[in-house]
Amino acid sequence: MENAPEYVIEMLHITKVFPGIIANDDITLQLRRGEIHALLGENGAGKSTLMSVLFGLYQPEAGEIRKNGVKVEINNPNDATALNIGMVHQHFKLVDVFTVLDNIILGAETTNKLGFLQKKEARRKIEALSEKYGLTVDLDAKVEDITVGMQQRVEILKMLYRDNEILIFDEPTAVLTPQEIDALMATMKEFSKEGKSILFISHKLNEIMAVADRVSVLRKGKYIGTVNTKDTNKQELSNMMVGRPVQLEVHKTPAKPGEEILKVEHLCVPSHLHKRNAVNDVSFSVRAGEILCIAGIDGNGQTELIHGLTGLDKASSGTVTLCGKDISSASIHKRGEAMSHIPEDRHKHGLVLDFTLEQNMVLQRFDEPQFQKAGFIRNDEVRDYAEKLIEQYDVRSGQGPVTIARSMSGGNQQKAIIAREIDRDKPLIVAVQPTRGLDVGAIEYIHSQLVAERDKGKAVLLVSLELDEVMSLSDRILVLYEGEIVGEFDPKAVTVQELGLYMAGAKRAGEGGETK
């Protein structure tokens, strides 16, 4: 190590404290030049906090950062950028109403002598980069009109445009389809071949095994150890991460479907992006005591279908019947009272981010007698209820029930929503991406909860982009492609490859074989 420093970045004895919680407790992390280094840990283990310290968003209480063996001060993201450190955040930092091009150059604009923007040059540079790495995006589209996968490409191009050499990816695959994940992995390998060094936060063990050279594990804010991926396996990593053996498989008895709970007939929901319907003439039903999964590649109408059912979007035609009652024209509030909904976008539709955790736990129930008297909220009852759910679902936060929801880790925000929705005890649970951004320990728990609800006679409508989850959790699978159902399958009788063909639109029911 005497000649050229072996490590391009060293974070030595970093400690970061928030009210009520030591997020990073004396952590040392060393990144080699040109390696893909994964950072693995449960939700709230301190992974994002540690990377935010490296990116200058937080200042540590103790410890130092070295680049190429020399101590550096990173007081804000501009300092990080000057040191060629870039970061793609778990929740993207983009301006919705700006174009892709404007988002990429924002904060790093090239101007001429008079201070006017030189957009032509910027465009040329970005086009060359997207060509080189296969990151095609429409530079003139507004960010609010492009898919999440595309938004992530914009974030990656932002880093490349700034010539960053150290790239931090925070949960980069949480919102991507299997195909987009493969493409991202290939891009990451390409970067490391060129000598860029990558820190990759994840708790998806398959991905870590596929791309990372080394893995460092954090647990409850402490450093557990670093291993070479070639010398380890998924079971060992999950034990290091959770501190106990984890069931990576879902255990469930065969379903015993009962009466029809939800019936959807000829539903059409218009698209926000183009003239045609996002959901086109869709019919299906979900029975008590079964988990019906809607599988598909993101952007094929799943979001609009669920919005049509829950009332977040207006259907243009078709009927929705819940427990024998037509709710097609019922208000969002009325539908919300009749079903539990774990929404796709936890920030937009799941939580009020500036409310406390306990307020979020009773969002739809504060007017029930248990929680109010003569129009005044019974705060003690709300607190007791929140504390019960926090303990039951292991929701981790700095200040318990009075924690502001915004300050919690993404995975713990998700656990809070799931706790609230399952506890509402409705006949239908609509679960959209319920384990998005959760670690193996939490996924194991959520899966067992959904199976338990099914066994109590609830109808569960699951929407998932994770094929492993689709295969292991569902009792029946419907594939949605371009807003239409193209096949119905029994998970025990279909392969992932076969499903993939239907999801990509290469096959449909009635073409080459029976699907049931």
Written account of the structure:
The protein is an alpha/beta fold and 516 residues long. It has two domains: 7-242, Rossmann fold; 260-352 and 427-503, Rossmann fold (3-Layer(aba) Sandwich). 32% of the residues lie in helices and 26% in strands. The protein has 17 helices and 22 strands. It has helices at residues 47-54, 77-82, 100-105, 119-133, 148-161, 178-193, 205-211, 234-242, 302-310, 332-338, 346-350, 357-361, 379-392, 410-423, 440-455, 467-473, 496-503, and strands at 7-18, 21-32, 36-41, 62-67, 70-72, 85-88, 166-170, 197-202, 214-219, 222-228, 260-270, 277-287, 290-295, 317-322, 325-326, 339-342, 372-373, 376-377, 428-432, 459-464, 476-481, 484-489. It has a six-stranded mixed sheet, with helices on both faces. Strands 16-19-20-13-21-22 form a six-stranded mixed sheet, sandwiched between helices. Strand 7, helix 6 and strand 8 (197-202) form a beta-alpha-beta unit. Helix 14 packs parallel to helix 15 (440-455). The radius of gyration is 24 Å and the shape is globular. The model is unreliable at 512-516 (pLDDT under 50).
Structural class category: alpha/beta
Q: How far do the termini sit from each other?
A: 62 Å
> Measured on Cα atoms, how large is the radius of gyration?
24 Å
Poorly predicted sequence stretches spanning 5 or more consecutive residues: 512-516
CATH superfamily of the largest domain: P-loop containing nucleotide triphosphate hydrolases
* DSSP strand count: 22
What is the average of the pLDDT values?
89
The profile of the biggest β sheet is: 6 strands, mixed
Q: Globular, elongated, flat, extended or rod-shaped: what is the shape?
A: globular
CATH topology of the largest domain: Rossmann fold
Q: Tell me, what is the CATH class of the largest domain?
A: Alpha Beta
Number of helices: 17
The percentage of residues in β strands lies in 25-35%
Helix content bin: 25-40%
Shape-level CATH architecture of the largest domain: 3-Layer(aba) Sandwich
Biggest sheet strand order reads: 6-7-8-3-9-10
Counted up, domains total: 2
